[in-house]
Design brief:
By secondary structure, this protein is an alpha/beta fold. It has helices spanning 52-56, 131-143, 160-171, 184-192, 207-214, 228-237, 267-270, 287-299, 316-325, and strands at 6-12, 25-31, 39-48, 71-72, 77-84, 94-97, 104-108, 113-114, 151-154, 176-181, 198-201, 219-224, 238-246, 274-277, 307-311, 331-335. Strands 3, 5, 6, 7, 8, 15 and 16 form a seven-stranded mixed beta sheet that branches. α4 links the parallel β10 (176-181) and β11 (198-201). Bound molecules: NADP nicotinamide-adenine-dinucleotide phosphate.
Length: 339
């Protein structure tokens, strides 16, 4: 029997200049065929919107190819198998995949990874237990090589990666964790709910001045989600032999021209600093260790799952634009409704 299902999906139809606009995207409704041999059909529950997607909207060489125009926005999603023609997955299985902003995803069974059994909510596999959590864990522990007693500064501290990086640093013995975020409410959230020792709103002054007030004796580790002025401030505040994990530079993602670098790079020499960029995708061999540690903290209630949920696949572009503007606390997700 032929399926009568249809799926709403979001296509990129124009490459943004500066800040992305809703008119850069289109909502398209497509018929969903039944799975063929070896295929499975998945009904999505949550879609991920992520800052790296801004880079893929450009027609430029990068570590990931650009999104195609007129095609569905790909990206991580989690959902349930509703029909399977593969012995590897059965109806009812929860799966992760990269087929993006759509209600239903159809593909070969190998395109879907089974969500490990456990009590964690499905959405956690796009956040604390997913790529975002692993980015925070790898960045703090392996790239910045956190040592017990370190003073740590995390920018983007109320966001998905930053909120976890600060909590992981604390759980692994940091002496003091300082964060920066874009509003007074986020600063309160970071300190009161996530347990950071201090935080500042970077709109209230220069990051260098505000960081000097929050960490008067300097810092040992900087977890950089923002780049630009924040990175310059951190280079100034790092103590001798300090380390920075360069995770992202969101302050520059909408820029049409490359921004000038930090003006104080020469400090790296005298202070013997290490600044190291990384991509979480290079560290898949660490996934089991990450899941064991962070999954354990989550089960014990020692790490806070924090997310902002926008309803409806049709609102994925608004969720993405909102993410870039700082409308989220924790992981920004789109919940997919339907029957
Ligand atoms: N290296 C990797 O493998 C890897 C993997 C995942 C993510 N990342 C990077 O990690 C960073 C955080 O990603 P995420 O998924 O956790 O996103 P997120 O922090 O949850 O969301 C983005 C946040 O960026 C902040 N922001 C926007 N414009 C800014 C500006 N001009 N200056 C300072 N902050 C600004 C906003 O918070 P405010 O309200 O505080 O401004 C916004 O909430 C991004 O740079 C991303 O590209 C890297």
């Amino acid at each position: 029997m032929k399926s009568s299902r249809s799926s709403k999906e979001i296509h990129l139809i124009a490459r943004p200049h500066g800040e992305p606009q809703k008119s850069d995207f289109a909502l398209v409704e497509t018929a969903v065929p039944d799975p063929g041999p070896g295929q499975v059909l998945v009904r999505n529950r949550f879609l991920s919107v992520d800052p790296y997607m801004r880079g893929r909207m450009r027609d430029a060489r990068s570590y990931v190819p650009p999104f195609a125009l007129g095609a569905v926005m790909t990206g991580m999603a989690v959902g349930e198998v509703v029909a399977s023609q593969s012995p590897d997955l059965a109806a009812g299985d929860s799966v992760l995949h990269d087929l993006g902003w759509r209600e239903y995803a159809l593909g070969p069974a190998a395109a879907f990874g089974r969500v490990p059994a456990g009590d964690a909510p499905l959405s956690a596999w796009l956040g604390v237990l997913g790529m975002v959590g692993m980015t925070a864990w790898v960045g703090i522990l392996e790239i910045a090589a956190l040592q017990p007693g370190d003073v740590v500064f995390v920018s983007g501290a109320a966001g998905a990666v930053g909120s976890l990086a600060g909590q992981i640093a604390r759980l692994r013995g940091a002496a003091r964790v300082v964060g920066s975020a874009g509003s007074a409410a986020k600063v309160r959230y970071v300190c009161d709910d996530l347990g950071f020792d201090a935080a500042f709103n970077y709109h209230e002054g220069s990051p260098a001045q505000l960081l000097a007030e929050a960490a008067p004796d300097g810092i040992d580790v900087y977890y950089d989600n923002v780049g630009g002025e924040h990175l310059e401030a951190a280079i100034g505040a790092l103590r001798p032999r300090g380390r920075a994990a360069l995770c992202g530079a969101i302050s520059q993602y909408n820029a049409e021209e490359p921004a000038p670098g930090p003006r104080n790079l020469a400090l790296l020499i005298g202070k013997r600093l290490t600044l190291r960029g990384f991509l979480v995708g290079d560290h898949v061999d660490r996934r089991a260790a990450f899941l064991a540690e962070v999954g354990g903290w989550l089960a014990e209630g020692r790490i806070r799952l924090s997310e902002t949920i926008v309803d409806g696949v049709e609102n994925a572009p608004a969720a993405f634009i909102g993410l870039m503007r700082g409308e989220n606390v924790g992981k920004m997700l789109v919940r997919v409704g339907g029957d």
